[in-house]
């Protein structure tokens, strides 16, 4: 049966750690606006073509109001990072959203990231020292991919990095699709909320030189600042986004580059390719997670299909990034690909606020790894790499390496 004639389960099941599900190519060519069944059992519309995904992400008619009564629930438990009550506290659109982005975004400029670069490199060096001391084989995700972005985002926010294991668990519950039950999710989110409340109270008493202290210093909304609740939820959101996605991407990027070792050799021979190699890894990542859901508040047409008001649309940036109409040899990894207008960070007013941070971390990790561990290789066959399951983010469970 063709994909046109069925309602696919979404996320589309896929055992391959680094390769896309076969259905993506068929969906792009024959059924770019497809019906899918979410983990909750609710139906949604899946978009897989580059032009459609880009247009929808930039279109203000497609909102993040996934708590609307007729919006599809992503997971049976509801809530979570896309549709929980916390998701509604940050303004969704218009001038309010732009104001929030301006206040928070100045901490994530390319200029600030360039200034942070030596500190990131130092952290990477220290983590690799520890990894080498423990000896091969090692899990690159646990030993480098996870701790590096956590240390960086904790320093930026002024949060104790010693609590990182708790953050990891709390983040996972916020990103739940099928892994956790309702009671566990509510308890974890309550703990996370209480933790951030206590942290902000401490910063009011003793401000530091960090993002959360500065947001408090701006003042209340009447003074052009954010409410206490908005600052708290911003802190929670940045902590989740600042470590989950990049931690997973570091592991996937290194695995992709080592899966065909001629890629790693190319970077050793010409480190100037690191920047374009990072962008190509982001584009080719077929295991990036759920994609971005949007709720349609008025009837709209996409690719010749009329979508009624109340439709929940899922934009698969990962499928769109392999669109042959946009990228030559889209299924191939070209470390020199430029330009590379991939959609890994979204598009439009809601494109990823932390993309300069993520790019810088990925580049720094690659620079330090190539210099320190040039003989790095996967310690298991690619076929044995396992995906992270049950969460809205994609990743590899472990990335076993030796050198």
From TrEMBL:
Q: Which cofactor is essential here?
A: heme
Keyword annotations: Heme, Iron, Metal-binding, Monooxygenase, Oxidoreductase
By its UniProt entry, which InterPro entries does this protein fall under?
Cyt_P450, Cyt_P450_B, Cyt_P450_CS, Cyt_P450_sf
Pfam families found in the cross-reference section = p450
Key word Heme present: yes
Presence of keyword Kinase: no
Gene3D superfamilies, per the entry: Cytochrome P450
The record's comment on protein family reads: Belongs to the cytochrome P450 family.
Q: What is this protein called?
A: Cytochrome P450
Give the species. Answer: Nonomuraea indica
């Amino acid at each position: 049966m063709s994909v046109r004639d069925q309602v696919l389960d979404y996320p589309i099941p896929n055992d391959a750690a680094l390769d896309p599900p076969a259905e993506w190519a068929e969906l792009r060519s024959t059924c770019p606006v497809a019906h899918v069944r979410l983990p909750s059992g609710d139906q949604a519309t899946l978009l897989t073509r580059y032009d459609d995904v880009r247009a929808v992400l930039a279109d203000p008619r497609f909102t993040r109001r996934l708590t609307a009564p007729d919006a599809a629930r992503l997971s049976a438990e509801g809530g979570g990072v896309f549709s929980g009550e916390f998701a509604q506290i940050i303004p969704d659109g218009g001038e309010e959203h732009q104001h929030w982005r301006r206040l928070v975004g100045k901490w994530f400029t390319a200029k600030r990231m360039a200034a942070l670069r030596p500190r990131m490199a130092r952290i990477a060096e220290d983590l690799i020292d520890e990894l080498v001391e423990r000896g091969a084989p090692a899990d690159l995700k646990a030993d480098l991919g996870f701790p590096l972005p956590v240390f960086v985002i904790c320093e930026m926010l002024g949060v104790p990095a010693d609590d990182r294991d708790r953050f990891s668990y709390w983040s996972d519950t916020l990103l739940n699709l099928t892994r956790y039950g309702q009671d566990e999710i509510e308890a974890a989110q309550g703990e996370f909320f209480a933790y951030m409340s206590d942290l902000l109270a401490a910063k009011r008493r003793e401000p530091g030189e960090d993002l959360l202290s500065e947001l408090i210093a701006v003042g209340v909304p009447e003074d052009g600042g954010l409410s206490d609740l908005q600052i708290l939820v911003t802190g929670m959101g940045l902590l989740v986004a600042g470590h989950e996605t990049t931690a997973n991407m570091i592991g996937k990027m290194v695995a992709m580059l080592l899966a065909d070792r001629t890629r790693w050799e190319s970077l050793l021979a010409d480190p100037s390719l690191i920047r374009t190699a990072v962008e190509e890894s982001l584009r080719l990542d077929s295991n990036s997670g759920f994609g971005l859901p949007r709720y349609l508040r008025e009837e709209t047409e996409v690719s010749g299909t009329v979508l009624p008001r109340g439709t929940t649309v899922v934009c698969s940036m990962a499928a769109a990034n392999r669109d042959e109409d946009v990228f030559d040899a889209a299924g191939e990894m070209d470390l020199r690909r430029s330009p590379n207008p991939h959609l890994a960070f979204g598009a439009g007013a809601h494109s990823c606020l932390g993309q300069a941070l993520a790019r810088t971390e990925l580049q720094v990790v690659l620079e330090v790894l190539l210099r320190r561990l040039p003989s790095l290789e996967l310690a298991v066959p690619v076929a044995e790499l396992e995906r992270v399951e049950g969460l809205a983010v994609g990743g590899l469970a472990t990335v076993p390496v030796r050198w």
